[in-house]
Design brief:
The chain is mostly beta strands. It is built from 1 helix and 20 strands. β6 and β7 form a beta hairpin. The relative contact order is 0.11.
Length: about 270
């Protein structure tokens, strides 16, 4: 009996040791999986904002995701201006990542966005519901450089810069259904702007002029052009280098800045 008991104890000890080793390995594998899993933490508080558009008495924008994390990192953010202060009204997750800077405009009902990084074009409701994801039909040498809306013919207006000839720009009117045939496609030259990765950033349209927010290599500038002829009317300093968005509200030009502020730039 004693011999049998000792054998059972030895067997039980060996089995316990084996199970312990297996458990340790599982824990180690689990830890490795955890360490290598993507970081999906969302810290939009620290992000810059992007272009702006004015709809239903509020400004809409998106955060320029700076985290580098995976998962849903981009929100549609709604701001009001209260006594000159920029106050968040609401925000909606767009379920997006990897879009970089987003231009934005609206047609009075829906929002339209274009990614400067990957050319994606989105149509959204004002609560962030996706209606479609599409893209323009241009060669990739044309860098997205602004998006606005022309109410006179119910068209989206896209500005592009030629990355192979950095002072050459292209203005395209396209239907909101993004049909491949452009209603109006014109190339023109803008001199004196940064020719690296910046140049024109975003645009706004109020008949009869097109307004272009751009970087000249030292500071941000506001370019005013006649929309019909694309002739230059003025080029004025913004006295800043952190402006990232533009829209026209009634007869006033508003600019957004990286630090999540929106303010009146000037009256028209």
């Amino acid at each position: 009996m004693d011999l049998m008991l000792i054998s059972i104890v030895k067997l039980s000890s060996s089995k316990y040791l084996l199970l312990t080793l297996i458990g340790y390995c599982i824990v180690q594998i689990g830890c490795e999986d955890t360490d290598s899993s993507p970081n999906t933490n969302k810290y939009t508080y620290y992000d810059d904002i992007s272009d702006i558009t004015y709809l239903n008495s509020s400004f809409y924008t998106t955060n320029y995701d700076l985290s580098g994390n995976a998962g849903e990192q981009i929100d549609l953010i709604v701001y009001d201006i209260v006594d000159t202060e920029t106050v968040m009204n609401n925000k909606f997750s767009l379920g997006l990542n990897g879009q970089g800077y987003l231009s934005i405009t609206n047609d009075g009902n829906d929002l339209f966005l274009q990614s400067r990084s990957n050319y994606n074009i989105f149509k959204l409701s004002n609560t962030g519901e996706l209606a479609y994801l599409s893209s323009d039909t241009l060669d990739i040498k044309w860098l997205p450089s602004g998006l606005t809306y022309n109410s006179s013919n119910d068209s989206l207006v896209f500005l592009y810069r030629n990355t192979e000839k950095s002072n050459q720009y292209r203005l395209r009117e396209v239907s909101k259904l993004l049909s491949q045939e452009s209603k109006n496609d014109r190339e023109f030259v803008l001199n004196g702007l940064d020719t690296t990765v910046y140049g024109a950033l975003c645009i706004a349209y109020k008949e009869p002029n097109l307004y272009v927010l751009a970087f000249d290599g030292q500071e941000d500038v506001l370019i005013t052009m006649d929309y019909s002829s694309l002739n230059l009317i003025s080029n004025e300093s913004v006295n800043d280098s952190t402006a990232v968005g533009i829209d026209i509200v009634n007869n006033s030009i508003y600019l957004s800045y990286r630090d999540r502020t929106i303010s009146l730039f000037k009256e028209l």
